[in-house]
Amino acid sequence: MTAFWTTYKVAIIYAIIVIAVVFLLRFLTKLFHNWLERRFLRKHPTEVPSTIHLIQKIFNALWIVLGIMALAFIFIDEEQYKTATDNFLLVLYLGIVAVLTLVAASLVQTWFKRTIKHRIDNNEDTTSYKFLRYIAIFGVYFIGGLLILIAFESMRSFAATALGGAGVLAVVAGVASQEALSNLVGGLFIIAFKPFKLGDIIKVDESMVGTVTDITLRHTIIRNYENKMIVIPNSIINKEKLINYDLGERMCCQWIEIGISYDSDIDLAKHIMREECENHPNLIDNRSELDKYNNEKKVNVRVIALGDSAVTLRAWAWASNFGAAFQMKCDLYESIKKRFDKEGISIPFPHRTLVFKQAQWDELKNGLKQNHPPGKKDQNE
Fold first, then answer.
1. Can you name the CATH fold of 252-343?
2. I need a surface site. Which of 85, 98, 294, 335 has the fewest CB within 10 A?
3. Nearest 5°: phi and psi at 336?
4. What is the pLDDT of residue 82?
């Protein structure tokens, strides 16, 4: 036993020190994690400190891996010391870069979150900040990834090129597909020229109407009135012709179009439509002072078409915004229909006349006779 101790005394002491250092580092990591977690929960009691938990896991794994690599020095030859030392430093470097990247991304996220909250409290537009948040976080992880690539000799030339000013665009254009790049550029155009912003009600087509809830690097998200999320790539929505109901003046003119029969009283129908519109609570008076002085009506009702079977009337009714206008339109169609029924104004519906040739008529009568011979009744009669 004494001979064994004498022979391996240095190695045993070295192993004990390495193990003790690993346990000490894990203990300090636990203390630091608990301190950060308590501080975070005091400021954000309803959120989960996922980044802090992830950093703790990375550090704990890093200390164990470095400890195992340090213990491996006991069993290797002196000729392999340089290679083992390089690998040890490489793992340490990768772990530190990973932690610093997570910390930087968390700080960027926190700054943007506070700024966005402050602007929301002051009723200011947050579209640019929410979009730039995605770019900033992507930039942090992109730089972190390049710093990790630098650690590998075979990838240093690639990383050095990417770190160059013109190299970044070349790398992105080469790695990303044309569609992904066009979505990114489309998102930048949306933020720069602001055809719409977060919270705006937009209409891309009849099936895509709703409120803009988010603009990311790839797509724009619209919440429609069925509470469903519509995801539209930026490259597509950037080229589409759309209606923004909140761009500039929010006041909205709603058309109420109804067709009446040719034998109905047009003047009475116009009076009913105007009266129902003016009685609706969502209607607003959009007349100028000159219009009021000239006793112009609040709601204009005119004949706009003479169709095959109907005279089409249109009322121009104004509401404070798109939502109020849509509700008003639905209510008015119902109330006007009831008034028309009460006042004897008929709404025509299409009729279809079928003309049979004699041979076809004879064939039809013969088929009916075969299916219903004389004296036999249909079971459904």
1. Alpha-Beta Plaits (3.30.70)
2. 294
3. -65, -40
4. 79
